[in-house]
Amino acid sequence: MYFFLFLFFNVKDSPVVNIVEDVSNAKDESKSNDTVCKEDCEESCDVKTKIAREEKHFMCRNLQSSIVSYTRSTKKLLRNMMDEQQASLDYLSNQVNELMNRVLLLTTEVFRKQLDPFPHRPVQSHGLDCTDIKDTIGSVSKTPSGLYIIHPEGSSYPFEVMCDMDYRGGGWTVIQKRIDGIIDFQRLWCDYLDGFGDLLGEFWLGLKKIFYIVNQKNTSFMLYVSLESEDDTLAYASYDNFWLEDETRFFKMHLGRYSGNAGDAFRGLKKEDNQNAMPFSTSDVDNDGCLPTCLVNGQSVKSCSHLNNKTGWWFNQCGLANLNGIHHFPGKLLATGIQWGTWTKN
């Protein structure tokens, strides 16, 4: 058996009550302190969170900016590389096309010489020129076009020429022919003096030989220029009373009346274009009338031959005609080439 005696009814001096009240007050103060600490912690956490968020945003912005910058620089680098590659491809393509054109031209020339080497062998005939041969032999039998030996008055030796016996009645002595650009016309005075090329293909007969032909006594010669464009359009320019002065006058050219449908490029459109009565010029023998320079299309020019890729012709500041200019390959435009400036197809 347990027995308890309670003595709690004495209120006057009750320590228990005080203890209880003190404990209650302490609890209230503790709750207040906890609230303050909690508020301080929440504010500190908010600040840290805000700082962390701003740092995260800053890092994201920097990363995004770096990615954009890297992407742009990479695109630019790739674009430059592609442009360089395309330029290289274009250059190689042009080189291949030019080489293919050269191979095709050379192959054609080889086949032409292999297939028919005999019909064009020179006929042993010492006529004065092709017209004389046609009039002499043609009265007996039909005279074919081909190589013939002529011996003009005044010449100390005979030489071969190409005679066209078919074109416009025949009897034409061919003094120059351009076909495919195989023969180089960028030559010095000595070559233009004696002649060069292949009489069965492209050639320049030579100033001395032309002089002997067109300066025979009691004979008048016609200069006939036959032109053909890349699209097979034909045109011509004809001049009567064609003759040359001798070598001491640098084979100064003289032309008579013009007729044709290609225009009179020798006399040109202006006074300063007139190439009639001009001496022959090359890159090393300059007689082009540029003293000391000429103004050609707004460009100051010292030598018409140099302007025309070192080819030879009867230049005059520099004129509208140059049938010895470098050959134009199809689709390739050049600043200067074979020129007949009064023909729209030129």
TrEMBL record:
<dbReference type="Pfam" id="PF00147">
    <property type="entry name" value="Fibrinogen_C"/>
</dbReference>
<dbReference type="InterPro" id="IPR050373">
    <property type="entry name" value="Fibrinogen_C-term_domain"/>
</dbReference>
<dbReference type="InterPro" id="IPR036056">
    <property type="entry name" value="Fibrinogen-like_C"/>
</dbReference>
<dbReference type="InterPro" id="IPR002181">
    <property type="entry name" value="Fibrinogen_a/b/g_C_dom"/>
</dbReference>
<protein>
    <submittedName>
        <fullName>Angiopoietin like 5</fullName>
    </submittedName>
</protein>
<dbReference type="InterPro" id="IPR020837">
    <property type="entry name" value="Fibrinogen_CS"/>
</dbReference>
<dbReference type="GO" id="GO:0005615">
    <property type="term" value="C:extracellular space"/>
</dbReference>
<keyword id="KW-1015">Disulfide bond</keyword>
<dbReference type="InterPro" id="IPR014716">
    <property type="entry name" value="Fibrinogen_a/b/g_C_1"/>
</dbReference>
<feature type="domain" description="Fibrinogen C-terminal">
    <location>
        <begin position="121"/>
        <end position="346"/>
    </location>
</feature>
